[in-house]
Amino acid sequence: MRFWIGVTDNNWFAFLAASGCDEVNFWQPSARAPFVNLPPGTPFLFKLKRPHNHIAGGGFFVKYATLPLPVAWDAFGIKNGAATLKDFDNLVRPLARAGQGSLLEIGCTVLAFPFFFPRDQW
Question: What radius of gyration do the chain's Cα atoms show?
């Protein structure tokens, strides 16, 4: 079985674990695709950053697209892992390359049926 592991921000994970969303945007601060030809339905696992360093959940790959940050917010809203557009911008912009300007383009990996393991199962 093929699967993908994406290293994710702990706050993004915690926000979405509490949200009950039916899909999530696993965004990247760069518009460069992290993979090629990933078939729809491929399991996509969330590996938390330090200090946790565990597989803590996942979802199922639907599609990858490059979108300007405000369009990603309009399309996904809180499914981006933030409560507001300003919060989302504050998550993404520090990770983006300098000089991106106001129309920052990000990579959007849409995942359906996200699941989040209880902490004792990480």
Answer: 14
Is 12 exposed, middle or buried, given 0-12, 13-18 or 19+ CB atoms closer than 10 A?
buried
Residue 3 identity: F
Strand order across the beta sheet in which 4-8 lies: 4-8, 43-48, 55-68, 105-116, 23-28
Cα–Cα distance for residue pair 91/80, rounded to 1 Å: 10
Cβ-Cβ contacts under 8 Å for 50 (sequence gap 6 or more): none
pLDDT digits (tens, 9 = 90+) for 37-88: 899 999 999 999 999 999 999 999 999 999 999 999 999 999 999 999 999 9
Residues in contact with 22: Cβ distance below 8 Å, sequence separation at least 6, in sequence order? 112, 113, 114
Give CA–CA dist 48/122, Å, rounded: 10
